[in-house]
Amino acid sequence: MNDRVTVSFLEVGHGDSIVIVYPDSKTATVIDTPNSRTTFDYIVNHGIRYIDWAIVSHGDIDHFRGIISLIKNLRNFGIPVANIGYILGDKKNSEKSYRKLRREFVKFADNGILTLSPFASLLPIIANLDGMVIQCIYPIQNADIDSADGEANNWSIVLMLEYAGLRVLLPGDLEGSGWFRLTQFYAINGYSLKADVLKLPHHGSWFDGGKEALALNEVISKVSATVTIISLGY
Fold first, then answer.
1. 213 burial via Cβ count (<10 Å: 0-12, 13-18, 19+)
2. What whole-number distance in Å separates Cα of residue 33 and Cα of residue 40?
3. Three-state DSSP class for 186?
4. pLDDT reported for residue 89
């Protein structure tokens, strides 16, 4: 155990791949990958021996394209994957490739990997180990997916990592209306969205606010991070 949590944002071109290494230095959670080789190499080269969660934040291909091959390659290499987290999403409007991905996840479930939708109302804490907590804070419930009206970005899985008094907010590609619902829920329950590090949603692309939507500048203001991370292909 090295008593340190490492959050790595990998260079995968346009897309996200985030690896959270736990305090034991052997366990990790992976969030998204469009490039299975890059993520696989990082995991192996850093001596990670167990994947607690492989999470697909939402149904855009630049986030999930490499996740199936990553899980298969890890298992073939002797690195087990315990849980897969993803949101079912809107069947009618989902990308064809995302519907195929969900069918593959069913096969994984048949082979002993637990597949779950980590709604904040049902599974708020997805990891709690040696003082490190990873919490799912959005979507809160199925109604949040319905309100997204088929826009995958707005049902992104949003995670808050806390360790040693620091917080890292990982919001997938959540945009205006999703942020509005998230901040309303947090305000009602007296929670804070402030974090030390923010992975900017949607690769830093601007989104407007409105009556029931937050603009990107409002998100940045509410989170008030010291460091922001942008992952894009240029």
1. middle
2. 10
3. helix
4. 66
Cα–Cα distance, 34 to 203 (Å, whole number): 14
Q: Is residue 1 over pLDDT 70?
A: no
Tokens of 5: 């949590």
Q: Which amino acid is at 67?
A: I
Q: Is 210 exposed, middle or buried (0-12, 13-18, 19+ CB in 10 A)?
A: exposed
Report yes or no: 153 and 122 within 8 Å, Cβ to Cβ. no
Alpha carbon distance 230, 85 (integer Å): 23
d(CA 185, CA 187): 6
How many C-beta neighbours within 10 Å does residue 63 have? 26
Neighbouring-strand partners of residue 143:
none
**Quick one: average pLDDT of 44-59?**
96
pLDDT in tens, 213-223: 999 999 999 99
Alpha carbon distance 133, 127 (integer Å): 6
What would the two tokens of residue 48 be?
A: 């990670």
- As a residue count, the chain comes to 234
Q: pLDDT tens across 175-212, in order?
A: 999 999 999 988 877 789 999 999 999 988 999 999 89
Distance (Å, rounded) from C-alpha 199 to C-alpha 173?
9
- CB atoms closer than 10 angstroms to residue 115: 16
Identify the pLDDT of residue 206.
92
pTM here is 0.93
Tokens, residue 91: 């069947």
User: Are the C-beta atoms of 109 and 83 separated by less than 8 Å?
Assistant: no
With 0-12 / 13-18 / 19 or more C-beta atoms within 10 angstroms meaning exposed / middle / buried, residue 206 is exposed
